[in-house]
Amino acid sequence: MGHAKKDAQFQPLNIALLTVSDTRTLATDGSGDTLQTCLQGSGHLLADRQIRPDDIYQLRAVVSDWIARDNVQVVLVTGGTGFTVRDNTPEALLPLFDKTIEGYGELFRQLSHAEIGTSTIQSRAIAGVANRTVIFAMPGSPGACRTAWEKVICEQLDARHRPCNFVEMVLPDVSSACGPRS
């Protein structure tokens, strides 16, 4: 668990949620439901939620729209990170990133190993920053979404987490998101 800075205040972020699936609907989207419950339970706001088929250009269009908006600070994408012919999420998102967050995928796979063993090598979980918007992509199972949120993303979207978090970058009025280690 990370360190919390006592004088920092929690800042709710506007988070858009995209489920990548050729078959799911809002009624059958367990992964999207898991992420929505997690983000709202942590005090963040759901800015938008959509489901799109695993098509590179449709995914880019939705995420490009969100990263162009001032009212979206974070994008969560679930699904399309495997190795089948229809898994195109990394290919859709990588060209949009100004910077990649390599440590996210590495940490996600390390944490997943305890849960699913070596099958974690088939996860192409990625993250990056585009236009001061943080984007996290994870596999399309509710368990993978819960692992990503609870063990990585949640702390990184909390201004109280130290020594570093992404809140200062997405909300420039928040100071000292990366302060000295205590």
Write the layout of secondary structure elements.
Layout: E1 3-4, E2 14-20, H1 30-41, E3 45-52, H2 56-68, E4 74-78, H3 89-93, E5 99-100, H4 102-116, E6 126-130, E7 133-138, H5 142-156, E8 161-162, H6 167-170
Parallel strand pairs: 2-3, 2-4, 4-7
Antiparallel strand pairs: 1-8, 5-6, 6-7
Helix pairs in contact: 1-5, 4-5
How is this structure best described in words?
A hairpin with a 2-residue loop joins strand 6 (126-130) and strand 7 (133-138). The chain is of the alpha/beta class. It has one domain (12-170): Molybdenum Cofactor Biosythetic Enzyme, Chain A, CATH 3.40.980.10. It is globular and about 45 Å long. The model has no long low-confidence stretch (mean pLDDT 90). The strands form two sheets. The chain has a six-stranded mixed beta sheet, sandwiched between helices. A two-stranded antiparallel ribbon has the order 1-8. It has six helices and eight strands.
Descriptors:
alpha/beta; Molybdenum Cofactor Biosythetic Enzyme, Chain A; MoaB; 6 helices; MoaB/Mog_dom; molybdenum cofactor biosynthesis; about 180 residues; 8 strands; MoaB/Mog-like_dom_sf; globular; about 20% strand; six-stranded mixed beta sheet; Molybdenum cofactor biosynthesis protein B
